[in-house]
Amino acid sequence: MKDLFQLTEESGYEGQLNLEMKTNKFDYPGLPEKIFALADQFKFKQEIIYSSFNLQTLIHAQKIRPEENYNFLTDKRIKDPAAFVKEHGFKGSTPSACSTRTCRSESGRWTVPCGPRRLLSTARPAFSPTSSKI
Prior knowledge:
Layout: H1 2-11, E1 17-20, H2 31-39, E2 48-52, H3 55-64, E3 69-73, H4 81-88, E4 92-94, E5 101-105, E6 108-112
Parallel strand pairs: 1-2, 2-3, 3-4
Antiparallel strand pairs: 5-6
């Protein structure tokens, strides 16, 4: 990850950085703290999106750094994504979709193809509070 951060900083990369904390199968104690400590060593031109399939990981990270951009990943249907995102203070979520839908927001366009975990387009979330309903 250090190499990625260094390359991002040195190249002047202006695209999005979406770091998935892969803690849905194994818990890595202190992972958010380690990621934040490493990220603090670099100057990025954009905010980092922190995402995970593990809700507890995001809640833990958010307690440490509430100002960061957190997005919940899931292959399960979320009944009310807007309420879920608002309740947890996240900036977005990628709920499962049963058909191809396109959501538009002020910040971009997202496409969620049929089937779990298949997000096409940029590293933006499939749903955010500013997007149209899906």
